[in-house]
Amino acid sequence: MTGTINLTGQLKHYFGFSSFKGEQEAIIRNLLDGNDTFVLMPTGGGKSLCYQLPSLIMEGTAIVVSPLIALMKNQVDVINSLGEETGVAHYLNSSLNKAAIQQVHDDVHSGKTKLLYVAPESLNKEDNLEFFRSFKISFYAVDEAHCISEWGHDFRPEYRNIRPTISKIGDAPVIALTATATDKVRMDIKKSLGIMDAKEFKSSFNRPNLYYEVRQKTKDIDRQIIKFIKQHHGKSGIIYCISRKKVEELAAVLKANDIKAAPYHAGLDSATRSKTQDDFLMERIDVIVATIAFGMGIDKPDVRFVIHYDIPKSLEGYYQETGRAGRDGGEGMCIAFYAYKDLQKLEKFMESKPVAEQDIGKQLLQETAAYAESSVCRRRILLHYFGEEYTKDNCGNCDNCLHPKTQHEGKEQLLIVLKAIMAVKEAFRQDYVVDFIKGRATDDIVSHKHEQLEEFGAGEDMPSKVWNPVIRQGMIAGYIVKDVENYGLLKVTAAGRRYVKNPTDFTYVEDTDFSESAEDEMEDHGVSALDPTLYSMLQDLRKNTARKCNLPAYVIFQDVSLEQMATLYPVTVDELKNIQGVGVGKAKRYGKEFCQLIKTYCEENDIERPEELFVRTVAKDSMTKVKIIGFLDRRMPLDDIASTLNLEFEELLDEIDAIVYSGTKVNIDYFLEDVMDEDQVDDIYEYFRESETDSIDDAVDELGGDYEDNEIRLVRIKFLSEQAN
Ligand code: ADP
Ligand code: MG
Fold first, then answer.
1. How is residue 398 annotated by DSSP?
2. Closest ligand 1 atom to 17 CA
3. Which class would CATH give 532-613?
């Protein structure tokens, strides 16, 4: 019957778009025909239109179940702005007052309202039943339908009650929509909504414009991220972190490095959050550092990169989050940092949860780990996860395809795996099967008497790192499946059985090694570049400067500072400020000549300055130091500062030393005047002026007997502040 409706005309009329995207038209016709409909379309594909347009055409009011209150308001505003009248769309949720609810009821009853967004809680509420029964419902739309399944990435228990509530209110066609769903989640959705016969519209999940890369997470991560952002200056990006604390820390580090960044997490008040969103949309800030609370419903088409600072908890979540990059079809770089350690931490977190939930959580996490460690095309793995086969050999847009690893012949290994799975009657998980192949008689294996089987230990002579990649690549090739419904037990497919009878060539690539040792290696590598010639030139310059100023050399610059200069080649006073131990004062006072020397040296010797970035760090314990500086400014006696901060007096001096040695000037004269005699101060001060070193022990040897250690330390603080900073 709908064949006669000119849908394109209606699209143009209501939305001003000239053509449908993807399968929108077919989806809408199916719904108009009164059929249940299931829509799987990636983020940005245009799902909303699939229920918005039919609601405007059909008789009655459509009920749209949607999980987020903020999103609802946004969508309602969009719809209402399309026409002259308001009230075409409304929402119903816990944020409305009595008068607003009455307005909704009136508009629905008068027939004005075509779309009613409801939160699942409001839909299921007994008190609302009578209202929902009091008007004609054109259809039910369930947006973000993956929320139904615990196997998705955003499970909401209220979504489970949608079908029972619909049955109480009255039947009408149902359209379910989601951007992510594995086979398992898709089944869950259909079952839970009672739409087993729904026609499915599944767009490809391939996003060819997205570039996927996984990097080893090292201690160097902040620097890597800053470098990346600077290389892509002015582009919009999102960085996901797992904890609020990390979000705050990283945002602070980025800001300290002149990047327009802001933190976003659910712990911030809503005014701050919406301001941050606005700033991002309006490009007043470039980078949002966020927990996964950020992003649903953010429709910024030109997000150019999405970085995962921590490993995501599931591949569905990962796909969804990376999906926010490049929605306009342009560049979208998706970079995840992975460390096996993080994975273990996440697993630990889960231990407090109910066993069943833990089990699901761990399996999802293992999938992400497999994705990260694998050397197979990332696109292929992701699409495989969503039940889609990617057939191109090389996608040309992920790290593994751009830098392919050597292929190994794995016929023998695959046969061992397949036979092992069958030997244990396809009733065990991957880690069990691997133990079995390696011939490890674990308690579990012994309790099943599997160590007595002929296949036990069939692969004990081969390196143990081959088994996981062979199993996973065997899955991608369709020989093995993981039965997610059943605790992730490994099964052999029909193709796998044929393979055992008639084996053919099978190649696999080894995983990338993300273990600790690799991490250490990378770090050592970074520091070995000190230029000895330059270093000795800098030492000479320091000596001369010291002589001129009539000061000990260490007051000018400490050794570590010179070492860094001879490694990083700073050539401007600005760059110099980022060298350890060099504050603004010191850089200005002594820096010029040093920079000049480095610059000339680089030019004369054709030295390419390392692209190495000057990363300003925000020290972990910087809060204490910031407080101390504040107290000193207010001339609070040092003993009071110590007790306020719950520090021993010596600990406070340690902190102040660190402040002074990092190049910040402090003034403690007001305190010295109170606790020491002026002549005593002069004595010690003179000692430091003459001394070759700043060592307290040497000073005590020289001055001891007359002065307390702490007195010497206090004067050293004064001396360094005045002369060095
Ligand atoms: P999804 O919910 O699938 O992530 P949306 O429904 O939010 O995607 O739509 C994404 C964007 O695409 C919106 O800005 C929307 O206005 C736009 N859009 C949807 N359908 C069309 C169309 N047929 N022509 C042009 N733009 C469209
Ligand atoms: Mg949507």
1. B
2. 24
3. mainly alpha
Contacts of 375 (CB under 8 A, 6+ apart): 400, 404, 405, 469, 509, 510, 511, 512
In a 3-state reduction of DSSP, which class is residue 178?
strand
Give residue 15 CA to ligand 2 midpoint distance, Å: 16
Mean pLDDT of the chain: 88
Residues 526, 220 contacting (CB under 8 angstroms):
yes
Report the topology of domain 210-402.
Rossmann fold (3.40.50)
Note the pLDDT tens digit of each residue in 168-187. Answer: 999 999 999 998 888 889 99
Specify the pTM: 0.68
CA distances from 525 to 104, 342, 461, 529, 530 (A): 65, 23, 34, 9, 12
Q: Of 255, 259, 321, 327, which is closest to residue 294 (Cα–Cα)?
A: 321
The residues spanned by each domain of the chain are 2-202, 210-402, 408-511, 532-613, 622-723
Find where tokens 């695959």 sit: 414
Measured in Å, residue 50 CA sits from the centre of ligand 2 at 10
What's the pLDDT band for 527 if we cut at 50, 70, 90? Answer: very low
Ligand closest in space to the Cα of 299: 1
With bands split at pLDDT 50, 70 and 90, how would you rate the model's confidence at 1?
low
Query: Distance (Å, rounded) from C-alpha 397 to C-alpha 401?
Result: 7
Superfamily of 622-723 according to CATH: ATP-dependent DNA helicase RecQ (1.10.10.1390)
Residue nearest to atom 2 of ligand 1 (CA): 47
**In this structure, CATH architecture of domain 2-202:** 3-Layer(aba) Sandwich (3.40)
- Alpha-carbon gap, residue 338 to 513, rounded angstroms: 11
Give residues (CB < 6 A) around ligand 1: 17, 20-21, 24, 41, 43-49, 179, 299
The third-level CATH classification (topology) of the domain covering 408-511 is Arc Repressor Mutant, subunit A (1.10.10)
- The whole-number average pLDDT for the span 444-471 is 94
Query: Is 2-202's fold the same as 210-402's?
Result: yes
DSSP states along 110-146: TT---EEEE-HHHHH-HHHHHHHTTS-EEEEEETTGG
45 Cα nearest atom in ligand 1? 3
Residue nearest to atom 5 of ligand 1 (CA): 46
